Each structure stands twice: as C-alpha cells, then as structure tokens.
Amino acid sequence: MTLKIEKVSDTRGTTLRLIGRIRVEHLEKLKAQVHPKPTKVALDLDEVSLVDVDVVRFLGACEAEGVELLHCRPYIREWISRECGVRSSKSES
C-alpha cells in the first residue's frame, strides 16, 4: 500500500489524514500539503503503517514548526524523539 492523503478543513484548520506507508518519495507531495498554510495544520497518523528515517525527521521538523501530530504510534513518537535528540546534540557540538 502506498500513501493516501485525505484532507479535512474547517474553521479551526486543516487535518491531513495519512493512510498507509510514508516513504521519502512521498515527502515532496506531503510538504506541499503542509507548507505554507495560513491556518493550523495537523497530521493524523492513526492509519500510518510504516515510515522511514527521512519521514521521521520530516515529522519532527513539522512538529517543531507547530504542526500537531495526532494519533502518533508510540514507536514513531520514540523514533522522532531520538532523531530530534541526535540533531540537537550534533548542532550543539
């Protein structure tokens, strides 16, 4: 299964419901949906089954920019935390 993106917008913002596997080749399309948005953006990861390291870094960067990650699986959340910690440590050196 490849990535499917369902977009839901209302007065509070836009939620992008991501379904399937997110890989590096999907990032350009996803970036175009996330940036730049005049309203609040959230990514619903409830039906995401697989990600790669580039996607994890992208999700961490999105979150740092204020994008809310909804229904993020614990292993993805942990991976984001580790990747962000590694980047922070390297930039402090």
Q: What does this entry look like structurally?
A:
The protein is an alpha/beta fold and about 90 residues long. It has a single domain (about 5-85), classed as Transcription Regulator spoIIAA (2-Layer Sandwich), CATH 3.30.750.24. About 40% of the residues lie in helices and about 35% in strands. It is built from 3 helices and 4 strands; from the N terminus they run ββαβαβα. Strands 1-2-3-4 form a 4-stranded mixed beta sheet. α1 links the parallel β2 (about 15-20) and β3. α2 crosses α3. The model has no long low-confidence stretch (mean pLDDT about 90).
Topology:
Elements: E1 4-10, E2 13-22, H1 27-34, E3 41-51, H2 53-64, E4 68-70, H3 74-92
Parallel strand pairs: 2-3, 3-4
Antiparallel strand pairs: 1-2
Helix pairs in contact: 2-3
The CATH C-level name is Alpha Beta
Q: Sketch the major β-sheet.
A: 4 strands, mixed
- Poorly predicted runs of 5 or more residues: none
Arrangement of strands in the largest sheet: 1-2-3-4
Bin the strand percentage. 25-35%
CATH topology: Transcription Regulator spoIIAA
Radius of gyration computed on alpha carbons: 13 Å
Specify the overall morphology: globular
